[in-house]
Amino acid sequence: MDFNYFEFKQEIVQGTESEIRQKYGEGWFVLRLGFSKKYWLVTRQSDITVNGKSYRDFALSFYKEKKLTAKLFEKFKKDVAKGRIRVF
Fold first, then answer.
1. Residue 77: helix, strand or coil by DSSP?
2. Residue 69 has pLDDT above 80, yes or no
3. Of 10, 77, 76, 73, the residue nearest 45 (C-alpha)
4. What residues form DSSP beta bridges with 41?
5. Residue pLDDT, tens place only, 31-66
6. How many CB atoms sit inside 10 A of residue 48's CB?
């Protein structure tokens, strides 16, 4: 199984909205800064993926947590290895 953890990431970038959306793609939230059409805030939530499928919401609800951290990711991997959690 291929486990991946993506940290929360936030950047201020310059360009047109279409350029930004094309560059960053799906999974990124794009917000215009102020009245400028040139500056944008792009944000990506932290995520856990197994074989390309997101388990963010599942992990947060399973562990009753509000924040997805690297420590929680390691716990998730161990629980999958021990058979406490089944992923498909």
1. helix
2. yes
3. 10
4. 12, 31
5. 999 888 899 999 999 999 999 899 999 999 999 999
6. 22
What are the CA-CA distances from residue 87 to residues 44, 51, 54, 58, 81 (Å)?
Answer: 23, 9, 11, 10, 10
Dihedral pair phi/psi, residue 40, rounded to 5°: -135, 145
H-run or E-run covering 80: helix 70-82
Burial 49-86 (b: 16+ CB within 10 A, else e): ebeeeebeeebeeeeeeeebeeebbebbbeebeeeebe
The SS3 assignment for 23 reads helix
For tokens 């970038």, name the residue: 13
Nearest to 3 by CA among 77, 85, 86: 77
User: What is the separation of C-alpha 84 from the centre of its chain, rounded to a whole number of angstroms?
Assistant: 23
